[in-house]
Structure formats: C-alpha cells, structure tokens
Amino acid sequence: MNFLLFIVIGCLAGFIAGKLMRGGGFGLIVNLILGVIGGIFGGWVLGLLGIDLGMGLVGQLLTSVIGAALILFIASLFKK
C-alpha cells in the first residue's frame, strides 16, 4: 500500500511541478514519471542539505514537488 501511495504522490508532484515550471515541462505523462523519480531525488537532495520537511503526507508531497521541479529544470537544459 505504501508503494501505491508513493506512486500517487509522485504523479501528483510531477503534475504540480509541470504547472510550476515555465513552459509546462514535457507533457503530462513524462511529468508524471519525472514526479515519481523526483520524489526520490528530492528526498536525497534535501537530505544532503539537512532539510527535513516531515514524514507526513504534506511533507512527502513538498519533497516530491521540489525534486520533480529540479529534475524538470535539469531536463529542460538538455531539451534545448
């Protein structure tokens, strides 16, 4: 059940990050996939910085949105 929740939060984070990024990211499906990957990446980056947003649903969503936005930004550098 936790894995399913992780996927749902990642997809929601990818959607939100796609809306936040200028240009809308790479399309809905790719943004959702990058959101799931961004959840892992965001947790890693915030852990390196010593930032803990909490383990609740909101903290996980914020961590995933930050990670997805970072991944979308990095991917947009290669898109050009």
Describe this structure in words.
This protein has one domain. It is built from three helices and no strands. Helix 1 (2-20) crosses helix 3. Helices cover 79% and strands 0% of the residues. The protein is mostly helical. It is globular.
Strand proportion: under 5%
**Weakly predicted, low-confidence segments:** none
Oligomer classification: single chain
Radius of gyration: 12 Å
**Quick one: overall form?**
globular
Number of domains: 1
Instruction: Characterize the biggest β-sheet.
Output: none
State the secondary-structure class. mainly alpha
Tally of extended strands?
A: 0
User: How large is the count of helical segments?
Assistant: 3
Helix and strand pattern: HHH
The residue fraction in helices comes out at: over 70%
The overall average pLDDT, rounded, is 82
Separation of termini?
A: 39 Å
Give a concise summary:
With 80 residues, the chain is an all-alpha fold. The protein is built from 3 helices and no strands. α1 packs across α3.
Give descriptors for this structure.
80 residues, mainly alpha
Secondary-structure blueprint:
Layout: H1 2-20, H2 28-48, H3 57-79
